[in-house]
Amino acid sequence: MSIKALKGFKDILPEEAAVWQRIEATARDIFHRFGFAEIKVPILEKTELFARSIGEATDIVEKEMYSFTDRNGESVTMRPEGTASVLRAFIEHGLHVRQPVNRLYTIGPMFRHERPQKGRLRQFHQLSVEALGSEHPRLDAEVMAMAALLLTELGLTASLEINSLGCPACRPAFKESLVAYAKARVGEICDDCVRRSDTNPLRVLDCKNEQCRIAFREAPSILDHLCADCRAHFAAVEEGLGALAIPYRVNPFMVRGLDYYSRTTFELLSGELGAQSAVGAGGRYDGLVAQLGGPALPGIGFAMGMERLVLLMQQAGEGQAQLASTVDVYVAALGEAAGKAGFRLLHELRRKGVRAAMDHEGRSLKSQMKQAGRLQARYVFLLGEEELKRGELVVKEMATGEQTTVALPGNTGAWCETVAGKIGL
Ligand code: HAM
């Protein structure tokens, strides 16, 4: 029996990989415009890194991590997200001494043992962005504007929702009033929420259970509990978004699945993704760098799910990126001698930067032409024994069917110049 991929782990086949390449290229281009530099971090980290940053009482750390004991007896985890690893590297290499604000991004696979469904995988990929070193609310607006621009340039739309989760000064009082509200409704809410109201109360606001949604509809709002500093920060973030004409909606029920957030949080939601509507999400984490043993530096970031971007692009008909395996020139050679000469010509073309292909199996002209069509070749260079003897080559333009005979000079290097010049490659 053949072996299949694991559940929730997906192969990305060539047609789809072309869409991925387009997403990555657009993202890099935009990130660089905003001054972000790429950082590459390992997939495997000490388990403690995620427990300390994402939080012990989160679903991710409690139930979803791919953790195991390695051969040295150390507990290690395949990263469930990028922020913790990027911050670990930032601290480990003292990047903050080099410049006041560090803008970093990373692209790669993340692992969470969730229940797979449309847009939700166990291995998924994120474009993950972090800006460290400033708590200015304008940075929050700038980072959200960058996320919105990326979607626009990919031809996609999503709605931006924002919230503030307050800070260590104002959140405890909010938590208390939320817990009191939950405890008064123990009979109406699910067992998970009863438990969460002890372990991680904010999460009750995010419960998908219909009963709980109804029960918490009138729950206290974090926005009514913000301290003066957090309120001013949130107002300035709104002002920043307004200045850049970025549309948004305030959603006081938005809590995030990771514990490290403070103040601004945001999500980019799409109605086209079914239950998994968040195409991207993030927020501020002003205490996290210090919590991981680094300097007391604030930060904000977000991540976009690449599989979800691909789904949206395919649905929007934007997923028709050109296959990397299409060619400019197909060299169709007939006979052994023409095959040899064609092989040299093929390599010369490639050295010149032309996408070229050729068949080595000695197939018929008909089947070679079929293959040229499959590869969407713009030109076919026909080389038979007769042409070779006469020092000629037939260039066929596939779109028009027009054929021109080109006389070839002495060697294939010069041939290449001649034919390439002829067709403007
Ligand atoms: P997150 O909300 O856990 O945040 O994930 C960000 C995005 O990753 C989601 O909006 C979604 O598009 C995608 N995603 C998450 N889980 C899955 C999954 N199982 N399958 C497919 N896509 C998924 C974070 O990870 C934070 N590190 C974001 C951040 C960066 N905050 C600050 N900086």
Structural descriptors:
five-stranded mixed sheet; 425 residues; Rossmann fold; binds histidyl-adenosine monophosphate; alpha+beta; eight-stranded mixed sheet; BirA Bifunctional Protein, domain 2; 15 helices
What does this structure look like?
- It is built from 15 helices and 16 strands.
- With 425 residues, it is of the alpha+beta class.
- The protein has two domains: 252 residues, BirA Bifunctional Protein, domain 2; 94 residues, Anticodon-binding domain (Rossmann fold, 3-Layer(aba) Sandwich).
- An eight-stranded mixed sheet has the order 1-5-6-11-10-9-7-8. The protein has a five-stranded mixed sheet with strand order 13-12-14-15-16, sandwiched between helices. Strands 2-4-3 form a three-stranded antiparallel sheet.
- The radius of gyration is 28 Å and the shape is elongated.
- The site of histidyl-adenosine monophosphate has 27 residues, from strand 6, strand 10, strand 11 and helix 11.
Shape: elongated
Q: Return residue spans where pLDDT drops below 50 for at least 5 consecutive residues.
A: none
| Total count of helical runs of at least 4 residues | 15
What is the C-level CATH assignment of the largest domain? Alpha Beta
Tally the structural domains: 2
The CATH architecture classification of the largest domain is 2-Layer Sandwich
Let me know the average pLDDT.
93
